[in-house]
Amino acid sequence: MADPVYLPDVNILVAAHLDTSPFHQLARSWLHQASHFATTPITETGMLRILMAPLPMPAVSRDDALLALHRLRGRAAHQFWSDHVSLSSPVIDLRGLLGHKQIVDYHLVNLAAHYGGVLATLDAKIERSLTPSARRHVLTLNSH
């Protein structure tokens, strides 16, 4: 069986690029070891948004943020997933979707499921909120 294509969420992408993140080493190591990974319009723009934000860390310049994205996309393991799925016709069970803060997370899990992939995240709450059938589309990284 082939390795799945992983969809790292924004937190992993940002942590991999900011050496001041407490998750930098974990995210960077995981991303460099992933045999296949994807980005989407949401994860790419989210990464740029947070890298360029002045708080809680000093902002990365626009040019440096775009260079980081360009390098990420230039890796042989990378593929780009267009985002044309909707929670109005979900691939996953949405029963665990209870609040507004879960919308983007569920959208990314739904997108990963659509492509037969796995959302990679640092946020254990995502996996815990999903139904058992949807959990196979999430990998929670931990530092233990």
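[next item in queue]
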Amino acid sequence: MNNRNFRLFRHSTHTHTPPPHTDTMTCPKSELEADKHALVVSEFIPNRLYFVTFRNKTHRNTTDFHYFTTDDELVYNNYYADFGPLNLAAVAKYINKMNFKLKSPSLASKVIVHFTSSNEKKRVNAAFLIAVYAIVNLKMTPNEAFNRLCSLKYPYVSFQDASMGESQFKVRLIDCLNAVRKAVFFGIVNFDDFNIDEYEKMDNIKHGDVSWIVPQKFLAFSGPVDSPGEECYHAPEYYLNYFRENKVNTVIRLNVKMYNSKSFSNAGVAHYELYFVDGSVPSHDIVTRFFDITENASGAVAVHCKAGLGRTGCLIGAYLIKHYRMTALEAIAWMRICRPGCVIGYQQTWLEEMEPALWNMGDSYRLRYHGSVDHIRNHKYGIYSFRNKEPNQMQSVEGLSCDCRDMQQGSIPTLYPHTSLHTSPTATSSKTETQGDKLNAVKRWRDMQQTVKSFKKVLKKTH
């Protein structure tokens, strides 16, 4: 990706040579559209790959068509009323599945149909999967993939945040696709070099609830505690080996003190306090200090609040907007794909209103340190990389040209009344549940249910 122009990349097209079309079969798209249960038919590879929304109908394979669905296989684990987008592991599994089907000799002469139901939540997640595949493997732009899916009669619902009940804070399907496109382009993720097992293990609350957002730069995790007591919490020492293996040398705490920071600092991990109230947004001083710490850190930075979702997402999201010129909605979408539940409530509004100022700051930063506003980081290895495991293997950083608009330099505006920058208060014995407590409780219950399901599967196989 050296020195490629992002403007040209945005508008690139891809042609895919379809397999020979047999005379014994009518046009696949016409045949699919003729099905009375078909609501929308989208063609991704002519005569070869289609995405179809059926009216609650199960399809069996035929001589000419191979049907499959992911609706009950790749499922989103919600907190409350949130229902997507599906996480990185689901995306990686889907890409592997689709590649297998397209390369399988037994399916070489068949039309492959990924179908979904009219359930609007399952449908938009299924559409997200095949559109990401089209972007990553068929080299379509997000708009090209999205336009193939579009239907005026059956539009796609937007994803909402992890709030209880209906929420006004939405992220659209196209925002998710744009986020993945930028993440792939800048090397933040490489699905040809992605360790699904590591992602799923570290995502589990029993194994630390750790999520990489930017390779060798940012990971988000649940706040440690000195005396865990429950499986959803871990002592600081639990994380040290993983941090050493992944060159994490800085921890930033955003919540009240629940562990002694010396547990990290005595192990050679720098520790910083940037406390602000659970569920709120950071002050000007906190954002400035966060950038100062993270832009000067020599290794990766681990950021946590109580659940590692809301406050953590605010600050990492601000970094993504500033340094990768993502929109606020793209940054939120990317974080939720990496770590479902990130950014809750009006934290989204804060990021959206901060977007212009953060873009200006990013332009100023790149111009000052790299001589060009278009110099955007390109990662040699993506998050959860297999290849980036050799000792002392450092990723390269190369200049890329990004589609950046000329904007006047500006500072961060103060948009809300905030708590001032100060040391984290110590947790008290108060029984008041915070937003982070509730989210962690959901994580614990969810993982327990998953354990029960896995146990039942084992029992079923043994009988």
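[queue empty]
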